[in-house]
Amino acid sequence: MGFEKLATLKAQLNEDAKNRTRASGVSPSRVKAGAAVIRRSNPLRTSDAAAHAVATLQKNFPRAFPRSPTPKVPLKVGILKDVLAQAASIGLSARDIRNGIKLWCRGHHYWTCLTEGSARIDLHGAVVGVVSADEAEYGASQESMRLARRRKQMAKDGGRQTR
């Protein structure tokens, strides 16, 4: 079979798939030739959207949201308002920005960077304050609670690591 016949066959299969889609009333995001119609209820799960938001924040504000292996830095108190003010220019919804910053600011790497006297930075990397003793204590308590939850989970699983 020559390439011309293959191209004709592919075009015919694509047309058949489109006709089946129109007849069923479903508008999928993507139709493959000769394949069943794929229906998507949600384009991205919340965790996927948050990870996408973090990647977008890293691209637009590399000093505030550094890429690995550069360690995380304490962010300005109220940085969410600053990012929301620029939501339209970076192409993210307010919900995705909130979830992205929530994902960024939770976890071992962020809580351990909250040490007393560390500089807090804004979106452009300028120093706008320092981490207080109470904030450092809060970060340490969050990390210790995370470790306690992890130990409890490992004991429940019989010492097996889940990751």
Secondary-structure-derived class: mainly alpha
- List SSEs in N-to-C order: HHHHHHEEH
First CA to last CA: what distance? 49 Å
Average pLDDT level: 84
Helical fraction equals 55-70%
Name the strands of the widest sheet in spatial order: 1-2
Tell me the total number of β-strands.
2
The radius of gyration is: 24 Å
The number of helical elements comes to 7
Overall, the morphology is elongated
Beta-strand content: under 5%
**pLDDT < 50 stretches:** 29-40
Largest sheet: 2 strands, antiparallel
Provide a descriptive summary of the structure in words.
- This protein is mainly alpha-helical and 163 residues long.
- The protein is elongated.
- The protein has a two-stranded antiparallel ribbon with strand order 1-2.
- The protein contains seven helices and two strands.
Ordered list of secondary-structure elements with their pairings:
Elements: H1 3-24, H2 46-60, H3 79-85, H4 87-90, H5 94-105, H6 108-113, E1 119-121, E2 127-130, H7 133-156
Antiparallel strand pairs: 1-2
Helix pairs in contact: 2-5
Short description:
The chain has helices spanning 3-24, 46-60, 79-85, 87-90, 94-105, 108-113, 133-156; strands at 119-121, 127-130.
Summarize this structure as a short list of keywords or feature phrases.
163 residues, mainly alpha, two-stranded antiparallel sheet, 7 helices, 4% strand, elongated
